[in-house]
């Protein structure tokens, strides 16, 4: 097969490209230029898309003896990921830009361009597994599964892939642990073998999301209120707060019972942040929209595992789909679930699909 290996300049994508070459594929390395003003050097482990990263990827391609190109997707990344991130926070939601990047850039823009140029698939350094199973009619179905390295598993952020995208995707690292990947990179003579991992959010290099949002959206002073509507503090922008947040609230009035208070709601229409006690954070019912299925569309009520954070716990749940929407009822209460987050559904280790959380609430009536 002719395969585009997405090479970020890190150790994972370097080994992924090497393994695809070892498997006998015709491999071409591609580095995605996603920043419209790429820095020469990385500011921290959070940064990405620097000239240094592109150079690291090129050096690996030279060691492998494969062609290497840089594809400029900065405008698409800004529109589909950065602008979306900004708009979601402005609307009082808490997005995950990695899911959006995978959906819109790596497995849409990149894959579409690769196919248009005559390639068969894209390979990345994500930690996940693709398992092929045979259908009753003899056709082969590709399933997305968790990686063997639970600490590095990235199946959550790949839950936005649909069956067609999955059919053209390879994740060569899914059966290996991160220490083994670094050892393999060193044995192959890759300069990036000990290069630090990058972290979310890649386009906020200093990790100060609140500061970035303040610069992008401007200050918008408003009130922090309790659940009775009493003003207990102030803020410079409701967009800087998320459900479940406890630190950095700067409340002027303590709770009458002295208990800590958390953000329980963000109201962008009135520019208010609502705080309350921890017991108000527990929810067991989620409504999701923008459903994406990694395989067959589930029919009726199905037993699933539900995960609402990239490295969070998986909870036993039941789910049912209605067009583009999904209802999920979790068997126990989950704290700090915010609109805009994604819920990814699992059947064992297999990823069933995902949806963006539109609403979360506590339901006391059993399902079915």
Automatic annotation (TrEMBL):
Enzyme class, first EC level, given as a word: transferase
Pfam families reported in the protein's UniProt record: tRNA_Me_trans (PF03054), tRNA_Me_trans_C (PF20258), tRNA_Me_trans_M (PF20259)
TM region(s), chain numbering: none
Region Interaction with tRNA: start-end pairs: 152-154
Reaction(s) catalysed by this chain's protein: S-sulfanyl-L-cysteinyl-[protein] + uridine(34) in tRNA + AH2 + ATP = 2-thiouridine(34) in tRNA + L-cysteinyl-[protein] + A + AMP + diphosphate + H(+)
Claim: Signal is one of the keywords in the record: no
InterPro entries: MnmA-like, MnmA-like_C, MnmA-like_central, MnmA-like_central_sf, Rossmann-like_a/b/a_fold
Family named by the database record: Belongs to the MnmA/TRMU family.
NCBIfam families: PRK00143.1, trmU
Protein name per its UniProtKB record: tRNA-specific 2-thiouridylase MnmA
Protein source organism: Terrabacter terrigena
Gene that this sequence comes from: mnmA
